[in-house]
Amino acid sequence: MGLDVLTDKHLMALRAAISFWKDEMPAADRKTWQVYAGVNASDSIPTQSDIDWLHENLPFLRLRYSVRDAGLNRWDDDRLFDTPEELERSGVRGEMTAVLILEKQDGS
Question: pTM of the entire structure?
Answer without folding.
Answer: 0.69
